[in-house]
Specification:
single chain, 75% helix, mainly alpha, 7 helices
């Protein structure tokens, strides 16, 4: 069923949907980076390697998030149910917003819902947290892949 899901990507509807997802995820990941530290400031502080690494991770995470969303929407069409891993992409984005966001915004957000804490500086412009987000996306894709390969449950005794 995984192959059938990938074949759906060749249709016009799913191709347009995937382009929209990719553009949205790229926009979100680059905005999160800019809220944390500009690429110029990152280059001056840490070097060009970190800028290239962050941009590469943004592209990888956007493509993988798009794949996960495509697998989730195609699973609904093929199996009639949504996958368990489909929400992990959203959790990854929420995690990124809360960790990469400007300190004053994050503190104000948590203070408004009653959580007070002290924020420590993120090492390497938040790179370790980006790897955690990538791991969450990978786990989501793994769950989607497993559920797509399970196939449909058919109860033969009732028929």
């Amino acid at each position: 069923m995984f192959i059938a899901s990938l074949n759906l990507l060749k249709t016009k509807k799913y191709l347009i949907q995937s382009i929209i997802f990719l553009a949205t995820f790229l926009f979100i990941y680059f905005i999160i980076d800019s809220l944390n530290m500009s690429y110029e400031e990152m280059r001056i502080t840490y070097g060009s390697y970190l800028v290239v690494t962050n941009i590469s991770l943004n592209l990888i995470m956007a493509f993988l998030s798009t794949l996960m969303m495509h697998l989730s929407t195609s699973m609904v069409e093929l199996k009639g149910s949504e996958g368990k891993g489909s929400s992990l992409g959203f959790i990854s984005i929420l995690f990124g917003i809360l960790t990469y966001g400007c300190t004053s915004c994050v503190i104000a957000f948590f203070a408004s819902i009653g959580i007070a804490f002290s924020v420590i500086a993120l090492p390497l412009a938040g790179l370790p947290y980006k790897f955690i987000s990538l791991l969450l996306i990978g786990i989501g894709i793994y769950f989607m892949f497993r559920q797509l390969n399970k196939g449909c449950k058919i109860d033969i005794e009732k028929q």
